[in-house]
Amino acid sequence: MSDHQPTIFDKILSGEIPSYKVYEDDHVFAFLDIGPLSEGHTLVIPKERKAQLHQLSDESAAALGRVLPRLCRAVMNATGATAYNVLQNNGSAAHQVVMHVHFHIIPKFGGQGLGIGWPAGKLSESTARDLLDKMRRALEA
């Protein structure tokens, strides 16, 4: 039994809601965002219905990784953009609204596109060592 809660993206995948399809293969679907931050703002979703990136199968993740660069090139070519952001949020605390994995390709034109703050902190030696130890153990599990 799946723990996936249906979203608007399920309705787009099933064709119940129309979309401006940019690309489709066996694992990935890409379409224009109807609330774009800039012209060419494109959403890229896996057909595998999972809420967050860490829940995806390796197969779906690899398929997304293979097609994202090609879609970025297509967005740049179609819009003339020379800069863009690729954004992917996981969980409502990280600003995810639709609980289905999705990537935004957002062309940047002056003030149009994604605007972000980056309140950088500092990484201490002890924190880095502790994190490395925990992450390496998690990767071995």
CATH architecture annotation name: 2-Layer Sandwich
Written as H for each helix and E for each strand, in order along the chain, the element string is: HEEEHEEH
Mean pLDDT: 95
CATH homologous superfamily (4th level) name:
HIT-like
Radius of gyration: 17 Å
How many domain regions? 1
**Morphology call:** globular
- Helix share, percent: 25-40%
Could you tell me the number of beta strands? 5
Q: Mind summarizing the main beta sheet? A: 5 strands, antiparallel
Q: Helix segment count? A: 3
Strand-pairing-aware structural class: alpha+beta
Across the major sheet, the strand order is 1-2-3-5-4
Low-confidence sequence ranges: none
* Proportion of residues in extended strands: 15-25%
